[in-house]
Design a protein that fits this description.
heterodimer; A: alpha/beta; Rossmann fold; 2 domains; 4-stranded antiparallel β-sheet; binds adenosine-5'-diphosphate; binds magnesium ion
Chain lengths: ~280, ~280
């Protein structure tokens, strides 16, 4: 299978040395609920607290964390959907907060909920989305069936409206949408949460395959220890907005003198990941 | 240089994508489109019947002329409704479907994104309004012997620049207030039309409302279109309407853009893009 070149690279002139992602002391706060008194101070909730890490090109890292630990907030910051309250983030040398246009060309994302126009078909949803990345109809007519085929989406259902597709099927379309624009940085926010075991496996296999074919850098936020261990070069633990560690699974286990990742996670945070495994909640 | 040229090309493809998406949606929701169109026709009929009603009450009026004046008002009301609704949907509908984050993280500049929504809104609005006008005029057997329809269309086109600018301003409301934004859009549309002489001359309004009428693009649009259809005035005889419309347009588009930009920054600062609340 041919390697697909990232689009528009000539536009953005990526610096050759810059790491794929460089995050320094990244901090994000949200207002928490209503004011206690009118004009009283707002209570702020620090959702990410001075998060620092670097991801090399072509690397895949996994971020493990309970619901509410700040995984989605990190992904949104890197996708230019939120503005930081401190620290910095660079993607291939571009400042995420001052040069968002350059970053947007390089990044795409799959989130836990599929997020499509439900009455429109997979084909229609992917077509217009690709247009936003500068892909013409001639390109998408060929590329959409091809990429959907590769994620294991049956071509016969190309024109069915999204609302008639199973969740597993929808998630494959979401993956296809992200890959269609050939991102060099792929942000996966719990891409397999809530999928049936078979779809889960298929999606995981595809992520592994795609990493090499596209030469993409991947940040995978997940609940699933096996998924993290299977797919990622390094594993990070995010606990209440603090990134505790980021290192290969073996080192992680050694550090916490644990046999399994579960045990290491528990030793690091005092919490278990399994207890909220079933929830499909993006908040 | 290759850079700017291919950026422009990518933006134009993006603009096409925005229009394309709206075409898909219109097609998928055609039953709604149909129902909504029938509703608009019924609504406009009720207004145009007022001319007949006044005559029946014994007042002597030129029914054909009055009916045409009311019809123009009804058509502009529905046209403006379409423009505002589509532009406000930019945020509101996408938030509802959950696609908003994907659209806002795409490398498409916001002006082209909103511009694409505006272009679709205008094309769609013109087609719908022309149909509405035709159906109701046919129903009442209205005659417009002097009408210069091209001039009327030209006035509408120029006015649409300002309508788009105003639409951008109301589009920002759902961005900063996910619960209340869409409602405020409706209020803005109603206020705009009530001061603009939609079914009556501006001169009947209380004075403060007349001041507002002077800065409302809908005032000039209604006047210009009525002049073109009733008196057969051509474009060259309507600078009094066209120049103010141009000026308001040149102000409202950048202003609308700037306001939207501020709203977007606010939403990104406080996490309002996606989450409700
Ligand atoms: N837009 C937002 N506004 C206010 N609070 C938010 C917003 N997004 C996330 N939060 C809060 O930030 C914390 C982290 O959320 P999130 O990043 O979604 O965690 P995760 O993805 O790990 O489950 C939670 O307490 C959540 O309630
Ligand atoms: Mg999450």
């Amino acid at each position: 299978m041919s390697r697909i070149e990232p689009r528009n690279l000539h536009l953005t002139q990526i610096s050759p040395e810059a790491p794929a992602v460089e995050v320094r002391d990244l901090t994000k706060r949200f207002r928490k609920g209503k004011r206690i008194r009118r004009f009283g101070p707002r209570i702020m909730n620090t959702v990410l607290d001075r998060v620092t890490f670097t991801v090399e090109r072509g690397e895949c890292i996994a971020i493990l964390g309970q619901n509410g630990s700040g995984k989605s907030t990190l992904v949104r910051l890197l996708s230019t959907l939120l503005i930081n309250d401190g620290g910095s983030a660079h993607v291939f040398g571009f400042d995420v907060f001052t040069e968002p246009r350059n970053v947007r060309r390089l990044v795409n994302r799959v989130s836990v909920e599929a997020s499509f126009f439900k009455k429109m078909s997979a084909n229609e949803n992917l077509s217009y989305a690709a247009r936003f990345y500068g892909m013409r109809s001639e390109e998408t007519k060929r590329a959409i069936p091809e990429i959907l085929d590769r994620v294991g989406f049956p071509n016969a259902r190309l024109n069915d409206s999204m609302e008639h597709l199973s969740r597993g099927m929808q998630q494959k379309v979401a993956l296809a949408r992200a890959l269609l624009t050939s991102p060099v940085l792929l942000l996966l926010d719990e891409p397999t949460t809530g999928l049936d075991p078979r779809s889960k496996l298929e999606v995981q296999e595809f992520i592994a395959k795609v990493r090499f074919e596209h030469d993409a850098t991947v940040i995978l936020c997940t609940h699933d220890m096996n998924e993290a261990e299977k797919l990622a070069d390094r594993i990070g633990i995010l606990d209440e907005g603090v990134l505790l560690v980021l290192e290969p699974a073996e080192d992680l286990k050694r550090r916490y003198e644990a046999d399994t990742l579960e045990a290491a996670f528990f030793a690091a945070t005092g919490k278990s990941l399994e207890e909220d495994e079933a929830e499909v909640d993006d908040d | 240089m290759k850079g700017p040229a291919s950026t422009l090309r990518a933006e134009l493809i993006g603009l096409y994508g925005v229009v394309e998406r709206n075409v898909y949606l219109t097609r998928r929701y055609w039953v709604w489109e149909f129902a909504f169109f029938i509703w608009t026709i019924a609504n406009t009929l009720t207004i145009v019947f007022i001319a007949k009603g006044v005559e029946a009450s014994g007042v002597s009026i030129d029914v054909n002329r009055q009916a045409t004046i009311l019809l123009v008002g009804g058509v502009i009301w529905s046209y403006l409704g379409i423009i505002f609704e589509i532009l406000t949907e930019t945020v509101a509908w996408e938030r509802w479907e959950g696609t908003i984050e994907y659209t806002f993280m795409a490398p498409l500049s916001r002006i082209v994104h909103l511009g694409g929504m505006g272009v679709f809104a205008i094309i769609y609005g013109v087609v719908r309004s022309a149909l509405l006008f035709g159906v109701v005029a046919f129903f009442f057997n209205l005659t417009m012997p002097n009408a210069d329809f091209l001039a009327a269309l030209f006035v509408l086109a120029v006015a649409s620049i300002s309508f788009m600018g105003l639409g951008m301003m109301t589009a920002v409301l759902p961005l900063i207030s996910p619960e209340k934004g869409a409602q405020l859009g409706f209020i803005a549309q109603g206020m705009l039309l009530v001061v603009s002489g939609i079914y009556y001359p501006v001169s009947v309004l209380p004075e403060p409302m007349q001041w507002l009428a002077k800065i409302s693009p809908a005032t000039y649009a209604l006047e210009g279109i009525r002049d073109a259809i009733l008196e057969g005035r051509g474009v060259s005889q309507m600078w009094g309407e066209i120049v103010p419309l141009f000026i308001i347009g040149i102000i409202t588009i950048p202003l609308g853009m700037a306001i939207f930009d501020r709203g977007e920054r606010y939403a990104k600062q406080h996490g309002k893009l996606k989450r409700s609340g």
